[in-house]
From TrEMBL:
This is diguanylate cyclase. It is an enzyme of class 2 (transferase). The modification 4-aspartylphosphate is found at D51. Its EC number is 2.7.7.65. It comes from Lysobacter korlensis.
Amino acid sequence: MKILVAEDDATSRLVLGATLRSLGHDVTTVEDGAAALEAWRREEFGLVISDWLMPLLDGPGLCRHVRAERRPHYTYVILLTSLEGKGNYLSGIEAGADDFITKPLDREVLAARLSVAERIIGLHEALRIEATRDRLTGLLNRGAILDELQRELHRAVREDGPTATMLLDIDHFKRVNDTYGHLVGDVVLREIARRLQLTLRPYDRVGRFGGEEFVVLITHGDAEQSALIGERIRAAVAAEPVEVPGGQPVSVTVSIGVAIGQGSPDDADRLLAAADLALYRAKANGRDRVEV
Ligand code: GH3
Ligand code: MG
Ligand code: MG
Ligand code: MG
Ligand code: MG
């Protein structure tokens, strides 16, 4: 596990860090809650182990920040304490802590607590993947790709650069279903999804928007580059018919509409509408083509 340790006492910090490493974990240590918060914002930590009393930001304070800032992954928080008493326990729970470890540390107890943490983090991750994936294609589902679009717009505003949104729609897909049946239609959808992923760069995002429509987000994409990527996708789909187990190969094409966004994080709806309009033009101009 990637573990972040916040502890102001140098000796305790060293001992805890060494113990966690000896248990096979990837550990980052910091001296205060404020430094921990900074590190947590920068990197993805599954588990935070924090001392209670620290000078700038204490354990419960750190915990409150972690709970307030929505991140896609869950952060399991364990508070370290030598403090006794119900009041502290309750205020730790109220701050959002998942568990507590009392000092002095016991290696076996620590290992046992970590196995609970691992189980909860694993469950959360499995749920998150389940909730963001499209079952048929394995791509991001509609909700997840819209979340990604929002994130991408914030990034574009921060970096003052362009970002492109692409809508793809399979041409005459109803015919595929009508001619070969729904199951073959599903095979085609899966294969198109696979070709999309193969064609895109690792940092571009692709999701199934619904039915036989897909969304592609081109990070830093300007008009020229996006037209190029769109054309690459179009060609990758049209190049070879889709192999179908026990049946004839099926030829399909896609139409693609591209819209370039810049400026506002509130642009998601406008961008999608513009991409939809471009897609409509691609259909009207004969399908199997890209319009920006
Ligand atoms: P156009 O070129 O204008 O896009 O024509 P089209 O036939 O693709 O358009 P239309 O929207 O009329 O048809 C979309 C079809 O996609 C209809 C629907 O049955 C099919 N479809 C949607 N989701 C699925 C799915 O999950 N599996 C299968 N096999 N077909 C699906
Ligand atoms: Mg985190
Ligand atoms: Mg302390
Ligand atoms: Mg459609
Ligand atoms: Mg279609």
